[in-house]
């Protein structure tokens, strides 16, 4: 059963990647994990990248950002779902972002 569940999750992630044409292959994706301080670390990193003139995207429990378009993350979830993240990365890549930061 555990193997079947793992395969199910892998298959969903693979299918989302396929549908959105492999967006993570076009950008540098940086993920931050842990218990506390993830959003703060991402905000510091994005400030550095933007200060260097890089186009960035960010998905965190606090906000979603693609280049200059910012909106609050009303779900408060750090992992909104495989298809959501793939679609988000595709949109960011299409808008010229070269760095995507993910909580």
Task: Summarize the topology.
Blueprint: H1 2-19, E1 28-31, H2 38-51, E2 56-59, E3 63-66, E4 69-72, H3 82-94, E5 99-102
Parallel strand pairs: 1-5, 2-5
Antiparallel strand pairs: 2-3, 3-4
Helix pairs in contact: 1-3
Which key features would you list for this structure?
3 helices; 5-stranded mixed sheet; alpha/beta; about 100 residues; globular
Distance between the termini: 29 Å
Structural class by helix and strand composition: alpha/beta
* Helical amount: 40-55%
Could you state the order of secondary-structure elements as H and E? HEHEEEHE
Order the strands across the largest sheet as they lie in space. 1-5-2-3-4
User: Treating each run of at least 4 consecutive H or I residues as one helix, how many helices?
Assistant: 3
Strand count, sense and barrel status of the largest sheet are: 5 strands, mixed
Characterize the overall form.
Answer: globular
The overall strand count is 5
Instruction: Output the radius of gyration.
Output: 14 Å
**Residue ranges: pLDDT <50 for 5 or more in a row?**
none
Name the beta content range.
15-25%
| Average pLDDT figure | 93
């Amino acid at each position: 059963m555990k193997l079947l569940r793992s395969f199910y999750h892998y298959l969903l992630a693979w299918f989302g990647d396929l549908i959105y044409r492999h967006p993570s292959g076009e950008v540098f994706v940086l993920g931050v994990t842990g218990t506390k301080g993830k959003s703060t670390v991402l905000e510091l990193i994005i400030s550095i990248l933007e200060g260097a003139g890089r186009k960035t995207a960010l998905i965190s429990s606090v906000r979603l950002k693609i280049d200059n378009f910012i909106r609050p993350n009303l779900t408060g979830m750090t992992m909104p779902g495989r298809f959501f993240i793939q679609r988000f990365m595709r949109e960011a890549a299409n808008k010229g972002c070269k760095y995507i930061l993910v909580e």
